[in-house]
């Protein structure tokens, strides 16, 4: 970033095509990071405005005003109030939708009053004619006293005009307010407020008072004076109401002169589609059908690339093993790092497909209808209609799902949603379920067409969802948090999804998963490898002791090597750890080897399969190239002489994985979103206890 | 007394001045202003929330909020 780059903040109501414009302006030059000190994702991109001028564009969350009610919206206020030269925008680009111009101009009028140079981009003008709208652009520019550009972001029209307007706006002098609130509501009151500081516009001071949000640059003295204005809360509320009405009056005056709608030309596709999608029977029917299609695709389509990735990483590890000089470093690479990376990459297909569906549903406007359909049901369980989106996203990965709760205004409803999301069956549980099901459930058809294994998998998903709902209900009844439940959802017009927007969304979400979860999984694979290949003195002496112990048994060389490997594993750090917890997990049907996998998969569930693969392959001789499934199949329980992974053990393990909070990345995100360790710790111990009790009962009943 | 919650599907009303104190700021900002025309578009299958069109905005709000906003019904 060079000094001459113009800092542009992109602001607008939700559903105005703000993201489309951002994508058009920045293309692939996008970066997702975090706002300093805040936990919300920051989307930034570079745009070439002219041959000599670049802009750094920050995409802010969609908002209807700068009086925030949710966490997403408070970011907008914070960015605009920040009186920090490095962070505060030079130019604000407000995106408005041609059809809802009046409401969009409310936000514009608030921003204009901050006295920052502002460009207004009116989007979706390609539909102007069809909707019977006419605009007097030059008069509108004059009335609003700002740069106004007509664009169609999806059709890539007017983007150059936006760039030119940003440059002109940046060069122009300081902007003036649109609706001076001072002389309209209570002139004396606002005159006193203005006296507090000459460094801020009146509207900035007013926002600090009403929103209780003070930029770092406010002095102690100024803050004390501002706090004095907060005393009369009912007066503040009344003045905010008056302010909003006054703004609308001004906007109406301007639009009357410049904006004409001929309603007779409007079509009513929205009404017809809504009749189907929000129908009391067809609405739910269509939603259920859609969920079935999504899950079917996630498993069916994803299995091909997943198998390919699995095989590729196995080949890479093999190749490295046979071509690199043997030693510690090669072992670390082939047993730790390569399988670790593979364990993350393998989830990309499933996550990408799921987010593809979610992005398309959001883009079309259908998601709002789902929220509308589900609100009453979800409310019974202490959540609200908006919670359905995190719960669906949770089937891919809990991390983005928890981030998606930021639009929920009520803290209690948001917290409950965050706490129960990890119960929904995420894609990390899938490899665990898949291998256990294939071991203990026979591959046969019932009623001639239903696959028994598939049915068991489906019931595990149902179990996860049901538990989430029940847990939410219990939290709803027990949590004593006072939080006003407030629910307003805009029902946007139906649109065809834009390929570009969907593409960027999927790439961004998948990337953030790989980076967030990937770091932890990779680190763990390396630690695990270290703990399994090192140990105290009995580990170092394992070879010698084994040879001495079996000296007169006449074992073949191969059998001897296997005995040595077993002894080494048993005496490695991880083996000792597994042995230590064995008494605690014996009632669940597990031995110390499963115990090791249990411990490591507390960091991330998918590590379970990899751990068992490591354990059994460390034990196995080199010529045996059987798959992990075959290895598990042939593992014998020495006490009974029968298979280790029998029906009761397998079921007990699946129940354990359905309930336990085994994901460090999720815990970290929950900590970040709730700003305390309290909630992630409650999740960890609460879900752990539930998992233990439930798998204990399962094992004892079945065996 | 009529409120938005008592509207039937398709029915139109006008938000009354006296409900100003009860309209949350958020709704005010989204166009639920005194004097504005409000039409009940849809009712969710479980009778709540409701889907209204006010001042050009299509919004879903809960009945609880809707029952606080007093209206004058059209064609009474």
- Major sheet attributes of chain A: 7 strands, mixed
DSSP helix count of chain A?
A: 30
Radius of gyration of chain A, in angstroms, nearest whole number: 30 Å
Q: Characterize the largest beta sheet of chain B: strand count, sense, and whether it forms a barrel.
A: 5 strands, antiparallel
| Coarse structural class of chain A | alpha/beta
Please tell me the total number of domains of chain B: 1
Unreliable parts of chain B: none
**Apparent shape of chain B:** globular
What is the number of independent domains of chain A?
Answer: 4
- Summed over residues and divided by their number, the pLDDT of chain B gives a mean of 89
Helix- and strand-based class of chain B?
mainly beta
User: CATH H-level name of chain B... which superfamily?
Assistant: Ferrous iron transport protein A (FeoA)
Number of strands of chain B: 5
Number of discrete helical segments of chain B = 2
Mean pLDDT of chain A: 85
**What is the terminal-to-terminal distance of chain B?**
13 Å
Shape of chain A: elongated
Low-confidence stretches of chain A: 35-39
Short description:
With 703 residues, chain A is an alpha/beta fold. Chain A contains 30 helices and 12 strands.
What descriptors fit this protein?
heterodimer, A: about 700 residues, alpha/beta, Rossmann fold, seven-stranded mixed sheet, two-stranded antiparallel ribbon, 30 helices, B: about 80 residues, mainly beta, SH3 type barrels, five-stranded antiparallel sheet, 5 strands, about 10% helix, about 30% strand
What does this molecule look like?
- The complex is a heterodimer of chains A (703) and B (76).
- With 703 residues, chain A is α/β, with parallel strands linked by helices.
- Chain A has four domains: 6-172, 3-Layer(aba) Sandwich (Rossmann fold), CATH 3.40.50; 187-263, no CATH class; 282-478, no CATH class; 501-702, no CATH class.
- Chain A contains 30 helices and twelve strands.
- In chain A, the strands form three sheets. A seven-stranded mixed sheet of chain A has the order 2-3-4-1-5-6-8, sandwiched between helices. A two-stranded antiparallel sheet of chain A has the order 7-9.
- In chain A, strand 2 (30-34) and strand 3 (41-48) form a beta hairpin.
- Chain A is elongated.
- Helices cover 12% and strands 32% of the residues of chain B.
- Chain B is mainly beta.
- Strand 12 of chain A pairs antiparallel with strand 4 of chain B.
